[in-house]
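Box 4.2: Ligand-aware structure prediction
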Amino acid sequence: MLMFIPKRIILEKDVMKYDMAKKILGYYKSKPNIEIINLSSNKFSQHIPGDDFYEQYREGKRTLIVGTKKSLKFQSCKPSAHYQLPLVSGCMGQCEYCYLNTRLGDKPFIRVHVNIDDILNQAEKYSKERLANITIFEGSATSDPIPLEPYTNSLFRAIEFFGTLQNTRFRFVTKYNDVDSLINAKHNGHTEIRFSINTSSVIEKYEHFTASRDKRIEASIKMASAGYPIGFLIAPVFIYDNWKEEYHDLLYSLSEKLPKDLGFPVTFEIISHRYTTAAKNVINQIYPDSELPMNDEERKFKYGQFGYGKYVYSKEIIEEIKQFFTKELEELFENKEIKYII
Ligand code: SF4
């Protein structure tokens, strides 16, 4: 298991009245070498050391802030969901291409919101505003929530809550495997768990401090066997020597292990590697030795719908990726839905 063991825990004022805060502290108290900082104001940044972005990033990734979600106005989460569910933000992982590197910028710390009752009640209010439509909540818009789950039980609470609400759905994506505590949650088919997977070469090279390929597959089997709708995000897809053999091996291994009698089609989303200039600049600062292929001359520049451009693989390569994955998925999986290959 790859549970998050922080170097320091920063407790915001007044959080100790919440059960989740007591549980988190109770768990970590027995662990050696964890600094516990009680804030008297809500200014935490001076407690995270580091002279430059490189150090602040690494220290931030080892900092857990226990706080409450004060504003209960949820962010929208188009196009995959209606709202973000703000349980956790940040992630202990250090994936070189993580979207959080640009999104959270110099605030890479992990922050957990202990007032989960307020958050879930607010979600119910939002869903009531949209009756009789289904309202979808996304639990991983700014985090990977799984490494904290064993001592927050936030996902468990959210899964059972949405399980009882007729017109709601919940979804999240993970690169981790600490899912055992979710096996017996009464999800009622309302929570979709997606696993972000890749070849072992890609994971070992770029996805530091995350679960291995086989651990993620094993976790996905547990969730599928527990009746959850599940999906796989294969992203980013890289072109390298043996890429076809290795992606085939990944999909073959998955198809061999997945139970055949699933109640829901398994979804697939395939995204080829792309980057923006802003992301490249951040990556060069926090991973100066990165071997990520980000040579602009080898890529096609494509304007995105939000006004900034991305460097993508050439049209021919993307076509090859589409053909390859379409053929593999068609041959290996029966009960599936290919959402997109881009
Ligand atoms: Fe980012 Fe996901 Fe990697 Fe965490 S596991 S660092 S959220 S890409």
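In the box above, the bound molecule is iron/sulfur cluster. The mean pLDDT is 95.
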